[in-house]
Amino acid sequence: MSNTTNYIQKIQTKIHENDPHQPEFLQAVDEFLSTIAPFLEDHPEIEQNDLLSVLTEPERLLQFRVPWQDDQGNWQVNRGYRIQFNSALGPYKGGLRFHPSVNLSILKFLAFEQIFKNALTGLPIGGGKGGSDFDPKGKSDQEIMRFCQSFMLELSKYIGPNLDVPAGDIGVGGREIGYLFGMYKRLRSYDAGVLTGKPLEFWGSLTRTEATGYGVVYFVKHLLADQQKNIEGRKALVSGSGNVAIYAIEKLQELGATVISCSDSNGYIIDENGIDLSLLKEIKEVRRERLTAYVNEKASAQYFEGSLWDKEISAELAFPCATQNEIDEEAAKRLVRNGVSVVAEGANMPASLEAANYFVSNGIYYCPGKAANAGGVAVSALEMSQNAQRLQWTFAEVDARLDGIMKEIYQACYDTAVNYGQKNNFVLGANISGFEKVAKAMLRQGLV
Ligand code: NDP
């Protein structure tokens, strides 16, 4: 066994021993470590300085109580978190997730992946993530507001435009960012750049709402263009029906694909005529209803309970845009059997380690979330630039920059994979090219 392999195994064992009850975090670290050996061979200074031990330990980890009152006057308490994982490249940057499943393991995996994703954008941002086990489903607007205000009352002590800049994620969109920003402003000052994903009425960036969904499609557009192919005329599966899914569907349709599915945590829709996007937006963004409403209003659609990925259905492109670990190895095999040749992750870590390995070893163009869904955070960083300039760029300008950034990310993944003799292994490409930037910055900053 080579020295490098020994070193990686030593780190892996240590992390598994330190945090045995954090399966998602361990999964993200294992995936990362499984790809970086060839880079470590070329860069002995990483092992000499034991940089992997420093890298895998969050710089700061905050957990706090979030008390709030429901509409009946009852006292409620949730857990709030912020993981400030790595600031080598800039202020911590990463979303807030409000979902009952939120815990330290999930947020640490998200923050860890965010480090490399942010590095891939080429923009000056470090990695962080946060959120709460608060469930926004079924809550009134007033309850959402009171929760956000209480959450920010504590979080405001630890964030700032040059320190840590949160944004949205599952369960946190423009409405929540608006309430969070209002409270921050009241407590501190009008620091527009303290949060991104702000509504357009106050310092938000055009294209931020669309950025993650558009970005994942741009990534695939550049991948296909490299092979003199395009998206037009292809059949696509999309999971999820939130922010990322909706705008992935919008861009896919604009580029001529037929998107036949979307889903939520209860079930999924198949509409062979193509998803009716204006109806989907009306149900999810305006009425905030469940997906079952779609089939009541669309005769061509069918609703099924369970996971979209359990269905035998033919398609060429798959865009998992809901949540982590939605595709297991069985589902991966099913997709490949049914003709899927490109899997592009709008969600973070939607494929299990086994599923991801299956895609890579079977020649599928597998585009990992840390590269393919980086468009959201990239436009967040552009929002910070606009806020600092006190300007608002046009939709077309931000969209063109987003497309350009996704092209560069694709190219970096591709070139790095080729460079290490593993053409089309975008997991390796994304991990090594993201890590290279972070590692160099960390080494130059010394042991901090
Ligand atoms: P939203 O809250 O807008 O939508 C989430 C969607 O995923 C909903 O359809 C939701 O269904 C579904 N979902 C959530 N949890 C589960 C679950 N446990 N099982 C099945 N379905 C589930 O979130 P986003 O669209 O913003 O985020 C989706 C994914 O994209 C996440 O992985 C997120 O981390 C990632 N991402 C988001 C970015 C952004 O800019 N927003 C940036 C980069 C990545 P239901 O309504 O039933 O809960």
Automatic annotation (TrEMBL):
<dbReference type="InterPro" id="IPR006096">
    <property type="entry name" value="Glu/Leu/Phe/Val/Trp_DH_C"/>
</dbReference>
<dbReference type="InterPro" id="IPR036291">
    <property type="entry name" value="NAD(P)-bd_dom_sf"/>
</dbReference>
<protein>
    <recommendedName>
        <fullName>Glutamate dehydrogenase</fullName>
    </recommendedName>
</protein>
<comment type="subunit">
    <text>Homohexamer.</text>
</comment>
<dbReference type="Pfam" id="PF02812">
    <property type="entry name" value="ELFV_dehydrog_N"/>
</dbReference>
<dbReference type="Pfam" id="PF00208">
    <property type="entry name" value="ELFV_dehydrog"/>
</dbReference>
<dbReference type="InterPro" id="IPR033524">
    <property type="entry name" value="Glu/Leu/Phe/Val_DH_AS"/>
</dbReference>
<dbReference type="InterPro" id="IPR046346">
    <property type="entry name" value="Aminoacid_DH-like_N_sf"/>
</dbReference>
<keyword id="KW-0560">Oxidoreductase</keyword>
<dbReference type="InterPro" id="IPR006097">
    <property type="entry name" value="Glu/Leu/Phe/Val/Trp_DH_dimer"/>
</dbReference>
<feature type="domain" description="Glutamate/phenylalanine/leucine/valine/L-tryptophan dehydrogenase C-terminal">
    <location>
        <begin position="205"/>
        <end position="446"/>
    </location>
</feature>
<dbReference type="InterPro" id="IPR014362">
    <property type="entry name" value="Glu_DH"/>
</dbReference>
<comment type="similarity">
    <text>Belongs to the Glu/Leu/Phe/Val dehydrogenases family.</text>
</comment>
<dbReference type="InterPro" id="IPR033922">
    <property type="entry name" value="NAD_bind_Glu_DH"/>
</dbReference>
<dbReference type="GO" id="GO:0004354">
    <property type="term" value="F:glutamate dehydrogenase (NADP+) activity"/>
</dbReference>
<dbReference type="InterPro" id="IPR050724">
    <property type="entry name" value="Glu_Leu_Phe_Val_DH"/>
</dbReference>
<dbReference type="InterPro" id="IPR006095">
    <property type="entry name" value="Glu/Leu/Phe/Val/Trp_DH"/>
</dbReference>
